[in-house]
Amino acid sequence: MPNDPLIDAYLRRLDHAAAALPRERRAELVAEIREHVEDALRSEGADDEVTVRNVLERLGQPEEIAAAALGDTVAPTRVDDTLRLQPVEPEQPTVPRQPVGGLEIAALVTMAVLPVLGWFVGGVLVLMSRVWSVRDRVVALLAPPVLFVVFAVVGLLMLPPDASGLGPLELAFVSALLLFGGPLLAAYLAWRLRDGEAAIQTG
Amino acid sequence: MEPGQTRNVLSQLRRGTVEYCVLALLRGGERYGFELARTLSEADGLVTSEGTIYPLLTRLRKEQLVSTFWRESEAGPPRRYYRLTDAGQLALSDFTREWSRFRDAVDALLQSEEGKGPDAE
To answer: Is B101 part of the contact surface with chain A (CB cutoff 8 Å)?
Structure first.
């Protein structure tokens, strides 16, 4: 890849114009366009300034690309689609983004502060909230019991048959789970809220 | 009719049909983004800004009409390839059928307008 200042400037403009996209999607878009430029220059067999300018011109204005991406993110069902057929699989109904309220905050705090019991209470609260996607809600509800079972099985396997009680290693495991499990789960859910995609993707 | 109207209608038509053209291009096997963008922009300017194909591909992927995978290339880093899913195949054949009917209906009316009545040859 020629480290062309023209290309860099173009990609920076794109990144800037796509600022409203979710972080991952934005990075992906910039990477795709970068890849396109590389492929185009390779197929031209040249990377002089004129070729680079032509390739960028054919791509279109960065703002136009970002707008297309934003249009698809914000309004998945477009109104101007007179020609669009019924999708084969019914589209996921896009739940309008729900505001984050007391329920969500209570769920996160309970989960983060109160080990074990808080995880289950928080899990139920998360399940009641409509802000998180189905996947996030399943993760929130299943993570504690699954982790618990995994730790129990691993602990039993590691325990020598004649041991009585827990060794220092097992104790460290259990306390790490108790101390950090809840805050980690809460942090994940909070991050999904911030990401802005949580309510849109139901898969 | 306003002068810009025809161009406007055509751009609406393009926008509505280009995703099916992408699906059609994938009928013959998997392709990567640059190939798709180039082919579409060279097909009578079906796509005027090649970059806008990427948001479109993302949507097709989300709608599970296409799937993606990475493949090594002889020169350079691995590329993301697109391939048609079964649902994409189905959507494409639905569209192809509907499009033929639509095109024939419009053609019939446009051509009958050229002669003075529907029966004129």
So the answer is: no
